[in-house]
Every structure is written in C-alpha cells, then in structure tokens.
Amino acid sequence: MRKKYVVGNWKMFKTSETALNYFSDLQNKLRDSTTVLPDIGICSPAVFLQELSPLKRSVHLYAQNVHWEPEGAFTGEISTQMLLGCNITGSLVAHSERRQYFNETNLSAGKKLNALLSQNLQAIYCVGESLQERESGEFNNIIETQLKDAFIQCSQEVKNHIQTSAKEHNSTQISVHPQPLSIAYEPVWAIGTGKAATVKDAHDVHQFIRKVLSEIFDHETANSIRILYGGSVKASNAVEYLSDDKIDGALIGGASLNPDDFFKICCLTNL
Ligand code: PGA
User: Fold this and answer.
1) Does the predicted TM-score (pTM) go above 0.85?
2) Does 186 participate in catalysis according to the annotation?
3) How are beta strands 5-9 and 39-43 bridged, if at all?
4) Ligand 1 centroid to 251 CA: how many Å?
C-alpha cells in the first residue's frame, strides 16, 4: 500500500512572516483534524527553511532545488550538507520551471538525485512533457529519457538504498515513511495554466512511469515508489486525481499558497 502524498510547492512566493504563519497554521489544523490524513509536505524557498524547520511536526519540509557538490565555489547554490544542517527532509529535483528557465538537464538532475539520496535525504524528481511533445505523441519517450538518463547518474549504492527501502516498505504492508524517492509527473502545459491533464491521461502516464521504474530498478521497488500528479490541481478537482489507483498524490503550486485551500485538499484524500 502506497500512502497518498500531498505536497505544496510555494515556488518564489511568500515572505518570512507569511511563511511562518502559514506553516504553524497548517500544522495546527492538521493536529486538530479528525480525518485520516495523507503524508504532507511543503517545498519552501530556501531562505525560509532554517526558520521553518524547528516548527516542523507532521509536515515534511523540502527545498525546491539543491546542488550536487557537497561544497564549493558555486555562488547562489545550496548543498545537501546545508539541508542536513537545517534538518530538512529533502528537495524537489528538476521542476519544469528549473528545466525551462535555469538550464536543468537530465544529467544535472541525475547528479542532484545522487547527492540527495546518498545523504539519506529524500528526492521528488519531476518529469513531464511540453505541449508540443504531448501533441506529437512523443511524450512517453521524453518521460522515459528523463527517468533513465537521470538514474544512470546514480551510484549502485544509491540504487541499493532505494531497493532496500522498497523491500522494507513492502514487507511491513504499511507506509514506512520516508521512502527516499518520489516521482512527480507534471505535464508542462498543465502547470499554472488552469488546464489540468485528464485523470485518464495522468493515469496512463503514471502506469507508464511505473513500468520504466521497474526496468531501472525492479518490479518490487517500482511498486513502492509514489508517483504524484502535478499541474493545476485544486480543491475542486483534487478528488478525481487522488481517488485514482495509479495516482499516489499531488504536487500543488498555486492552490497550495493559501493554507485553507491546501488543508482542504489534504482532507480530500480520506477516501
Ligand atoms: P500548479 O503548479 O499547481 O500551480 O499548476 C504545480 C507545480 O508547479 O508544481
């Protein structure tokens, strides 16, 4: 059983004050809730992580990006060591906005996955096709390449770590949290556009991603990895995605900016 995972991505929004208020408010709501909740995470701008971390109770806290080197002359970057020092859960890797505006490639994404996973941090690896790639019918090939070219950068040790965690997860029959790796399928044309993929389209791509993961790792490991859908998920459509058996959760941008809206989506997973 893969427990559902709902993750908010604040992108480059919020101030120190609004971030702190939101984070406390959300966790109070979750504490007082009587519904069965999914696992929940927030991806915050790096500058707030240190302030938010001590407030962390049930919510996992992620960076939105990380460098692959442990330290060095890389102005503007943050390292896995810095995340560990702040007691952060992990990081998003290769969000499509990083691919689109900051030259993120499958190669750099793979190095980041390797850096995070070898330090026992979690990674949410984002994949997804552009509108042109969707319309040309090439999207499965694009996604397969995004997965295979990235994981080829990961050491055998990292692959063993993912496989061992999967075995533990499957043998206990409950969600052993944290699983080191999640995948987020985010079609670029659905992000921030209000034009979400149909549940059927997301379902089919998730099934395909799991097949590719079983080729990269093995069947058992692939079955334990959560695959989240992202792209214009909001309170009014979240149930459709979250009730699909191939969709293990959601990565939510715009609708995660308000704690009431985000909390509402978290409660919808009690299906
Ligand atoms: P959106 O963003 O929910 O605003 O479409 C999703 C994301 O970028 O992760």
Assistant:
1) yes
2) yes
3) parallel
4) 7
